[in-house]
Amino acid sequence: MPTTPATVWTATAALRRVTAAVARLDRPGPHGRASEVATLRAAAGRFVAHPRPPVLMAAVASLATVRLARGRFGRADAAVAVSILAAQPFVEWSVHLGVLHARPTSRAGQACYRIAGWGHEQHHRDPTNMDTMFVRPQEVLGTGTVALATALLGSPPAATAALCAGLGLLTYDWTHFLIHSGYRPRSRMYRGVWRNHRLHHFRNERYWLGVTSNIGDLLLGTNPPRDAVPISPTAAYAHTR
């Protein structure tokens, strides 16, 4: 069917409506600071009260519903789940360094900076501001649509993969928020990721790139002793907040 001015106008109007609907899911702040909460219960309450995390939770719930409807879990599903769990530290590491901290010195770097780097830079400038730390609804709906299509049209293990990826992103969002909250670590594992992420912010943002795990940093050489790297200008600025 040939493209006509009326078709273009209709498509543009539909895109504007979708954009407006997504914007309503991301109500402007201020929504407070993560540092204001000091217990797990209070942190959970603030997490679900912010307009961004519930969008991600709804997407994960949708993926879980679809996967349950696809039938029983088998060995292939277990293999997929273990593979995604093993890949999570390296995915976090790669995205954190290559996208969130992309340097706009090339076309690819400029694109990454416009998509996510600029927003992550604002998070580094004000780390406990709850309006700069969560995955945005636009990102959730974009990737969630692809994941949902995979879960619906692919094989049951593909649906499991989509669900596990969503759970991994939700775990990332929650852990990241909790690290910046006033809750202090009790378990040895959480104490390790808490310490490293704070070094990432307040020492040097080119190191300590893991959030839910330090495995990527340990294996990829970005987990140096604290005093082995200089304090970067961005980290020094954040430390004064």
Envelope shape: globular
Give me the number of helical elements.
10
User: How would you characterize the largest beta sheet?
Assistant: none
Structural class assignment: mainly alpha
Give helix and strand order, one letter per element, not per position.
HHHHHHHHHH
What is the radius of gyration? 20 Å
Query: What's the number of domains?
Result: 1
Low-pLDDT stretches are none
Percent helix range: 55-70%
Strand content: under 5%
What is the residue-averaged pLDDT? 87
> How many angstroms separate the termini?
57 Å
How many distinct beta strands? 0
Structure in a nutshell:
The protein has one domain (39-239).
Structural write-up:
The chain has helices at 5-25, 40-49, 53-69, 75-100, 107-125, 137-153, 156-180, 188-202, 215-220, 233-239. By secondary structure, it is an all-alpha fold. Helix 3 (53-69) runs parallel beside helix 6 (137-153), helix 3 (53-69) runs antiparallel to helix 7 (156-180) and helix 6 (137-153) packs antiparallel against helix 7 (156-180). It has one domain (39-239). The model has no long low-confidence stretch (mean pLDDT 87).
Q: How are the elements arranged and paired?
A:
Blueprint: H1 5-25, H2 40-49, H3 53-69, H4 75-100, H5 107-125, H6 137-153, H7 156-180, H8 188-202, H9 215-220, H10 233-239
Describe this protein with a few key phrases.
241 residues; mainly alpha; 68% helix; globular
